[in-house]
Each structure stands twice: as C-alpha cells, then as structure tokens.
Specification:
Blueprint (H helix, E strand, L loop, with lengths): L5 H23 L17 H8 L4 H4 L4 H10 L3 H17 L3 H14 L4 H15 L6 H21 L4 H16 L4 H9 L27 H18 L10 H4 L2 H15 L29 H18 L3 E3 L5 E3 L4 H11 L3 H14 L2 H11 L2 H18 L5 E2 L5 E2 L2 H19 L3 H4 L1 H21 L10 H6 L4 H11 L6
Antiparallel strand pairs: 1-2, 3-4
Helix pairs in contact: 5-6, 7-8, 7-9, 8-9, 9-11, 9-13, 11-13, 13-14, 14-17, 15-16, 18-19, 18-21, 19-21, 21-23
Length: about 500
Amino acid sequence: MNNFTSRQRKLLYAVCIIVLLGPIVYFGFPVQQSPSGGVASSGLGKLGRLRQDYDLGEATLGEVDPSSSAMNLVLLGLRGPAASLLHLKAIEYQEHKQWAKLRTTVDSIILLQPHYVQIWKFQGWNLAYNVSREWDKVDDRFYWVKEGIKFLQRGTSRNETVPILEHNVGEMIDKKMGISDEKRFFREFFLNDPDVKYKDKVTGVNGPDVEINKEGIDSYLVARRHFEDANVKDDNDGLVEVKGMTHVFFRQGPVKALLNYAEALTKEGKFSGNYSTSASLKVPIESGNGASENAGAFTGAIWKQAYGEWMIGYGKYQFLGRDNHKYMLNSSEAELETMAKANGIDIGTQRSVWNGSVDMVHFRYWRDFAEIEGDPVTIAAHKAFFDAKKAYAEAGDNIVLPDGTTQISEAQRLLEISMDRWVEASAKYPKFFNDNSMYREEALLTTRYWKAVHQNNDTVEADDYPLKSLWESFPDSHLEIESLFLQESRGRKR
C-alpha cells in the first residue's frame, strides 16, 4: 500500500466503497411490491423478504411509510446520529416558538425511528402538554393538545402490536379533557370543536374533530375505547407484562374511564337523558331529561356497570405479583387458598402478595365509591343539590301568597331534600363522612347554601335541622366551605 501513489490509493478506496455498497443495497433495499400488493419473490431487498417470511418485517408491526425506508437506506448506518441531531433541533425550535419547523422536524424524526416507542410517547406528550401551554387562548391550547393526540395515534398505526402506545392515547384524552385546568372548555371542545372548519353548513353548529372523535361521543368514552383496544393488544401479544407500565394499572384503563365518566356526569348535573351512543355501555337509552321518577336512572346504570366491571372484569383478572405468584384483586378467602396451592406457597405469602396490590391500586376505595355513588339515595342527594344551586342563582327568595302565607323558595325545598338524603346515606354507610372528604364537603356546602337562603329571606333556622351535627363537628372546615360558597354564588341574581 505504501508503494501506491496518492491517486492510486484514492481510486482503491473508491472501488472498495463501491464493492461494499453492492451487498448493502442488495440486502438492505426496501422490499419490492408485486402487482397484487404482496412482496416480490425476487430482486433487491433480500433481508426485507426474509423479515416478511418470518413475520419480522415492518408490515407486521404496523403501517409502513416508504419514505422512512428510503431515508434509512440513504443514511446507511447514521440513522441514530441523524435522529439525535433532529431531536436537538426540535428542542431549539420549541424554545424559539418556531412551531411550523418543530412539526416538520418531529415528522422527520419518526421517519428515522418509526418503531422507537419512546419517541412517540415523548413527542406526543410534548405537543399536548409543553407546546400547548405556550399559547394564551384556550382554543389554541386545545389545537396543540389535539396535535399531541393525533401524533400518538399515528404511532399506534405504525406500531400496531405495541399495547402501551394505544393506552397512552386513552390516557392523554382522559387526563387532558378530564382533569386539566382547561377541562371545562376542553370537554365541550371535544364534542364541538371551535375550529370553523368543523362547523356544519346546514345547522351552523360546530361538530367534533373526527380524527380524534369519529362518533362525536364523550371524551371519557373515546378514552375507554383506546383502553379497550390496548387491553386486546395486551391479550394478543403473548406476553404476561406490558413494557412501560405496571400491568395491574394498565388493565384498569377501561373501567377507570367509565368511573371517571360517571363522576363527570354527576358533577355536571347530567343525571338523566341520552348522553352517549357508545356501544360499550350497557345503559338504557332515555330521551330528554327523563321523567321525575326516573331522575338519576342514567348515571345510576353507568355506576352499576362500572361497579360490575371493577369487581368482575378487572377484579377477577389474574395478575402476576411478587416472585411471579398469581393473584386476583377480588379474591375471597377460599380463592386465596386455591391460588396459594396453585402457586405452591403458604396462605400468608399469598395474602401478602394479594393485599399489596389491592392497596396499591386502591381497589377497596374504588369498589366502595362506585357502590355508594350508584345508590339512588346518593344520586338523589347530588341531584337535589345541583338543582338547588341553580334555583339559588335565580334568587331563591320566599314567595308571599295572596292569603298572606309564605311559600318557601324552590332553593330551600331542594336543599332540604338534599340534606335529608345525605342523612339517609350516612346512616346507610358507616363512616360515610369520615372516610370520604368529598361527601363531607358537599354536605357542608349544602348546609351553607341552606343557611344563606334563611339569611336572604330573614327567616329563622330550625333548631334541629338535618346535618346540624355534621356542621358542628367540623368547625375547622367552615372557612374553606365559606370560600367555596362565595366562589359559586358570585353570579346570583339579587
């Protein structure tokens, strides 16, 4: 080699490069498609055809983007460094609020690494959480939340066998629409998108973005669909665990979405009527607001279904716990003994494995919560209080009849119904107010509204009114309740 001239060495290097490129192109070229849409049996792409034969190709993972394969071929072995550089550029564009360049860069990243799950998770989360908060208007924030959801949905189509990505889509919809600071707007936007391109030309009403809500149903029900699909993928992948999440939390997605849906309907005062067309709900369809005797039947049916799924569908699923010992969250003493024998361990160890997971997922709390919330007495208490607040906002004054007698206001009547129902519920469920601060807070707030009605009408409170003992038992909560009352009643008509 030392006897070669500089020109000869360059020519030799060029020949070696060309010779090495031959096998690289032959083996690594994207697979050729036959006229029928299948993989050609001959030609370039030898490794690609072998991957197809043994179900190891990209098509077995999800949709294939031809430009992705071409880019990887052109980059030869530099795909990783190129992706890292693009990640740095994406961060730079985000810091400088260059959103168009950020989107283009993110699209380039997934062309290079379409099956790297963390890319989809991170960038989807980044768009929905970090980028969206950079905007002031709520509808602009909603747009970028949608972009994050759509990005994750693209990831599921490119990685159809990965359960965690489908679960992440459901989780993002569940959390961003349900518990974010903008949830009051986002839940409405999910059904009626503020973008003018979704306005119906006939009715003039804005519809949903069909890319994320094809059926136009509640956000929690769309999230539930994704959770259900994720669980199906989990059942079909042949693995016991899910990479990226504790299995016992992963599997609760569908039923937790249903619990959240029922809770949202309760808080929004939607106790009757048809608020969903989801086929996964076994709920009788009502129309309008429903008859008074059926008030609460809709939410009651959803709570009942959620309770059943929590106890049976989720509670009876077999998980692997510590040292790969099987357990079920909803286990009787006899079932614990049976599983202990099957696991080859003593009953004490089995109970320890089981109880640790039961506590970890708060299984008993959600069991009791669904049971109590589905009780007609509790539903009646919630509904009467919700209606009472609306009546109070309209004035809530007593009416003097022509004969000189006084008719109590609708607000007072409903508040007293709610107070009676809270007393009934507390008698039915021991430690009702002590174990759940949410019920205690609502009952105390009901009492505060009732006191305000008497103050406004200049009437005397009864000496032994319902919930008096509760009100006097929690004096430290009065300041917080007063603050809530003032916030809620600011718009009351005088």
